[in-house]
Design a protein that fits this description.
The complex is a heterodimer of chains A (about 280) and B (about 475). By secondary structure, chain A is of the alpha/beta class. Chain A is built from 9 helices and 17 strands. Chain B has 3 domains: about 15-145, Fumarate Reductase Iron-sulfur Protein, Chain B, domain 2, CATH 1.10.1060; about 160-255 and about 410-479, FAD/NAD(P)-binding domain; about 255-410, 3-Layer(bba) Sandwich (FAD/NAD(P)-binding domain), CATH 3.50.50. Helix content of chain B is about 35%, strand content about 15%. The chains are: A alpha/beta (about 280), B alpha/beta (about 475). Bound molecules: flavin-adenine dinucleotide (FAD) and FE2/S2 (inorganic) cluster. FE2/S2 (inorganic) cluster (FES) binds near residues 216, 217, 218, 220 and 224 of chain A.
């Protein structure tokens, strides 16, 4: 059982949760994730660890309300408990002093890229962060990321805040201007990561992406999370979650992410109308 | 009829009398009905049939059956108790050597073990040892009079166990009884290993496994679930925390795919994923339970072992109209238990023998729609005597499918070896044990079950747990 300390909406559909998980809090490194299961009948879902406090023994996660499980999660209150939390899982990000690094985050991926920004900064990099959202109200962690970056550029798709347009356009412009970029991290929706990779590939700029495959056990036992990287099948949970973006088959990833779309809609509908009894 | 103490060498007369009693059948759910539910297929013996069956045992003085049992269950002794109506006593005898009799009575391949060597089997049918084992264990559990074994006084020595499968559960029980302070670290949120995530409810009700795990807790065993050794903590960190010995029983959990084109299309599962979704996560009760599963109409399961049978029978219960076993050899070579093959046939599973997939075909959304197969023929026996399948040229054809389950085996999961310095593994990644004790290349670290042998059986994993328990006891007694 893991007690929830805080469960706070950052925007209309993005929530930050802090809960107790002392052993994991001590151990986790940037880029790793947990699997959580709310209750007896719950499903196992992977979520990146955004932050941790070894002293208090807590972990922070940021999630978007997209289906039944995340909706249920968002209704929980401080003092409630999560039945199961497993981790830390996956390989930590390979953090070095690359030089000048651009970190791109989109949507809820901004939460995932945040710990990397912190770790990269600590390792001595010059960190330029580009974060984007559909509209101003959905933007998260602007302040925290600003504090940990040498430069921060914010974009919104509708132009309600910051630069009007996509994060990829900002990166493209930087490259076109001849700015030196040694390394890129891109985390967000699949289409965003794909476009960022398309932008950096012609220039040979190493681009690392973090994949959000469907998972079950998250220890390499089932293969639910398989992706194709450089033509080879890899398991995101144990071989990743980060991969060389230029090698990832994004079409396969986005197809496989749709496997349960219909079932999930059904479950979410039943949950919303209260027909499933929980 | 009294048959206690009668040896094999009996008079002709009594022998004939005995053979008149046939091996007792276990009533089962009707195949048409049972494919619509996940409840257990056989109902088990009644007290009357159990006694009749038990009395078929001729109580050999030198019982061949025991030699066939990997953990030396005192077979004639427990059967004698049933014959005399002492069901609780019988369970006690069983538990002296087998900590999970309700499980083994259901899933052991008795036809290759104790029942194979039963003297009665030479001329007629062997005693139904497995069914009797199951009966006695169930009787005890249902009676609520489960005996709690004697536990020695605590010796304060801490032993850690990685993995709560049959090997881990067995060693935990044995060491707890000897007075050790035992903690099991299990990666998943539930204990039982393959017993909870792999073997389906209709073959092994999960309540039975839960009762066994509860029994361990009553012995004082601590169980930490959601604890991945190698990730949450490494084995070396466990030693630093004061554990004096570690047993690794993490199973052979990594799925094997065939590396043929299209294998990552949607609707293609490893058996591990398919069964884990259905059993551990209870996807068959979606949306009451939150985990979904693809309910295919035309399901092909690749492979011929128990795992393939469990998968194909699960597919039927999830609503498949056509559930197929695709196997590259013939039925004779299929490694699955005869009983399971028989059950699958009764339920309407199609067996496509001498067939091997070579490619999957998908639609534009990435869903599998077809499976290109080759027909095979069996060649001359190779050095090992097995006739290996050879493709027939030009025999390609396509089978329409919307779900595929790949059940062609598992390999070792590398997490523990990769994070434990100096732990020797063989070329397939399985942990090397020096001898039967399970001792690895590192002092104080023992291993057993599928992670040493490769995918095997519940009873062999339990046997390995037991032997390692003795070895650890010896090792720590000297310390
Ligand atoms: C579908 C299926 C059907 C089968 N049917 C039969 C049958 O009818 N009869 C029979 O005798 N045998 C059967 N078997 C084989 C049998 O189940 C196995 O041989 C047996 O369970 C092996 O036991 P084990 O203790 O070695 O490992 P497992 O049962 O595999 O248990 C290992 C446990 O370790 C955990 N683990 C893994 N990695 C870690 C880690 N890093 N840290 C902590 N925990 C970890 C796993 O989650 C798991 O719970 C079947 C197997 C399958 C898959
Ligand atoms: S989630 Fe099961 S192998 Fe990755």
């Amino acid at each position: 059982m893991n007690k929830i300390v805080e469960n706070k909406k950052l925007s209309e559909n993005v929530v930050k949760m802090v809960f107790e998980a002392p052993v994991i809090a001590q151990k986790r490194k940037a880029g790793q994730f947990i699997v959580l299961k709310i209750d007896e009948k719950g499903e196992r879902i992977p979520l990146t660890i955004v932050d941790s406090d070894a002293q208090k023994g807590t972990l922070t996660i940021i999630y978007q309300i997209v289906g039944k499980t995340t909706a249920k999660l968002s209704q929980m209150k401080a003092g409630d408990s999560l039945q199961d939390v497993q981790g830390p899982l996956g390989n930590p990000t390979e953090i070095e002093n690359f030089g000048r690094v651009v970190c791109v985050g989109g949507g809820v991926g901004v939460g995932v890229v945040y710990p990397l920004i912190v770790a990269l900064k600590k390792a001595g990099n010059e960190v330029i962060s580009i974060i984007g959202s559909r509209t101003k109200d959905l933007l998260i962690l602007e302040k925290e990321i600003g504090e940990n970056s040498d430069r921060l550029i914010v974009t919104t798709d509708d132009g309600s805040y910051g630069v009007h347009g996509f994060v990829s356009a900002v990166l493209q412009e930087m490259i076109d201007k001849g700015e030196k970029i040694d390394h890129v991290f891109a985390i967000g929706p699949v289409p965003m990561m794909r476009v960022i990779c398309d932008v950096t590939k012609p220039h040979g700029i190493k681009t690392v992406v973090s994949l959000n495959s469907i998972m079950v056990d998250a220890t390499g036992m089932c293969g639910a999370c398989r992706v194709s990287v450089g033509g080879k099948t890899k398991f995101t949970c144990v071989d990743g979650p980060e991969f060389d973006g230029h090698e990832v088959d994004f079409k396969l990833l986005s197809d496989r992410l749709k496997t349960y779309c219909e079932s999930e809609r059904e479950a979410y509908e039943k949950h919303r109308c209260g027909c499933d009894g929980n | 009829m009294k048959n206690i103490g009668v040896d094999v060498m009996e008079t002709k007369e009594t022998k004939e009398k005995k053979e008149k009693v046939p091996r007792q059948k276990m009533p089962e759910q009707d195949p048409k009905k049972r494919i619509q539910n996940f409840e257990e297929v056989p109902f088990g013996y009644t007290e009357e049939t159990a006694i009749i069956e038990a009395k078929r045992c001729i109580q050999c003085k030198k019982p061949a059956c025991i030699a066939g049992c990997p953990v030396d269950v005192k077979i004639p002794e427990f059967i004698k108790e049933i014959a005399e109506g002492n069901f609780i006593e019988s369970a006690k005898v069983l538990k002296e050597t087998n900590s999970l009799p309700a499980v083994c009575g259901r899933v052991c391949p008795q036809e290759d073990q104790c029942e194979k060597t039963c003297i009665l089997g030479k001329k007629g049918e062997p005693v139904a040892i497995g069914r009797l084992e199951r009966f006695a264990a169930d009787y005890e559990r249902k009676s609520g009079k489960v005996s709690v074994p004697a536990v020695a006084k605590s010796n304060g020595k801490k032993v850690a166990i990685a993995g709560a499968g049959p090997s881990g559960l067995t060693i935990a029980g044995d060491l707890a009884k000897l007075g050790y302070d035992v903690t099991i670290f299990e990666a998943l949120h539930k204990s039982g290993g393959v017993l909870v995530y792999g073997i389906p409810e209709f073959r092994l009700p999960k309540a039975i496994v839960e009762a066994e795990v509860e029994g361990l807790r009553n012995l004082g065993v601590k169980i930490e679930t959601n604890y991945v050794i190698g990730r949450t903590k490494t084995i070396d960190e466990l030693f630093e925390e004061g554990f004096q010995a570690v047993f690794i029983g993490v199973g052979a959990g990594a799925p094997v795919f065939m590396n043929i084109p299209g294998e990552n299309l949607i609707g293609i599962y490893s058996a591990n994923e398919y069964l884990t979704r259905s059993n551990l996560m209870k996807a068959y009760r979606f949306p009451e339970y939150d985990t979904p599963i693809v309910r295919g109409k035309r399901v092909a399961v690749i492979g011929g072992g128990n795992v393939a049978m469990d998968s194909v029978r699960t597919a039927l219960r999830l609503g498949a109209e056509r559930a197929m076993i695709i196997y590259r050899r013939t039925e004779v070579e299929m490694p699955a238990r005869k009983e399971e093959v028989h059950h699958a046939q009764e339920e309407g599973v199609e067996f496509l023998m001498l067939t091997a997939p070579v490619e999957y075909i998908g639609n534009k959304d990435g869903w599998v729609t077809g499976m290109k197969c080759l027909k095979m023929e069996l060649g001359e026996p190779d050095a090992s005597g097995r006739r290996s399948p050879k493709p027939i040229k030009g025999s390609e054809y396509v089978i329409d499918v919307d779900t595929v389950v790949v059940a062609v085996g598992t390999v070792a999961n590398p997490i523990v070896p990769a994070t434990t310095k100096g732990l020797e593994v063989n070329k397939w990644g399985y942990i090397v044990a020096k001898d039967e004790s399970g001792l690895t290349s590192r002092e104080g670290i023992y291993a057993g079950g599928d992670i040493v042998t490769g995918a095997a059986t519940v009873i062999l994993a339990m046997g390995a747990g037991r032997k390692a328990a003795n070895a650890i006891h010896e090792y720590l007694s000297k310390k």
